[in-house]
Amino acid sequence: MLNDAGPTLWAGHHRLDLAAPAIMGVLNLTTDSFSDGGQLLDGSAQALNPGRLRARAEAMVAAGAAILDLGAESSRPGAEPVAEALEADRIHQALAELADLPVILSVDTRRASVADLAIDAGATLINDIGGGRDPAMRARVAGSSAAFCIMHMQGSPASMQDNPSYVDVVQEVGLFLNRQVEACEKIGIERQRLLIDPGFGFGKTLDHNLTLLRHLDRLIAAVDAVCLVGLSRKRMIGALTGQPVDQREHGSVAAALMAVERGARILRVHDVRPTADALAIWSALREQTAGS
Ligand code: HH2
Fold this sequence. Notes:
alpha/beta, globular, 12 strands, binds 6-hydroxymethylpterin-diphosphate
């Protein structure tokens, strides 16, 4: 999987070449996401606005996103859980709206039942911030050809930022991800379908996040799997730049590049165009270095 040409992600019928890093664009179908809540919903019923979703998705694809990540439940610290039926309904509608786009459609959910419906409706990547802890979730993905992203989180969204603590954050996150990768492989989810994610901001202080970013290469080597990172617009970017959530684009791009330098292969971002531009510069330098 991790060969000289770079890894390839298997996601349903897609084979995503990750010799160059890829971009996952975030589409939040929520009222309360910290970064962009409510933008794709309408009126007092908070129904999905299909036209706005489609336009945002097409713009992301045109700007270079290879994956679109649909989420219908916010995971920000203290967020209220969304009823299962509502989450399922919004995901189903969104997948139907975007089914013909030539990209990997990912669904960000912790519920096996939602993953189930999403796979049947055409999702080829399940992004589980629960880290694949739920055996029903692992079994559902194993029985499909979808890819699976397992993310580390200490605690749950309701309480994860109360008092996160680690003895060695890089080692502990690595051990967890290794264990989960093994559990997935054991039931038939091939490594080519697996993505690992250290879960920036999920039960981590600023110092934990910085340590994880600084040592991302060590973490990736310890688990030997393709790494996705989500740093975009997060609180750590706000803490370091002093910028409000809607002005964290530049800080997010800088952090994304640092992650790519240390081996991340997929960037989960809200701002696709600036990230793609930064990656174009990074890739040109990489190619020239390799050729000289
Ligand atoms: N971060 C968020 C949500 N899902 N999935 C992965 N794999 N990695 C992440 O870092 C990650 C994620 C939080 O960001 P966002 O979707 O913008 O906000 P919210 O959870 O409030 O909807």
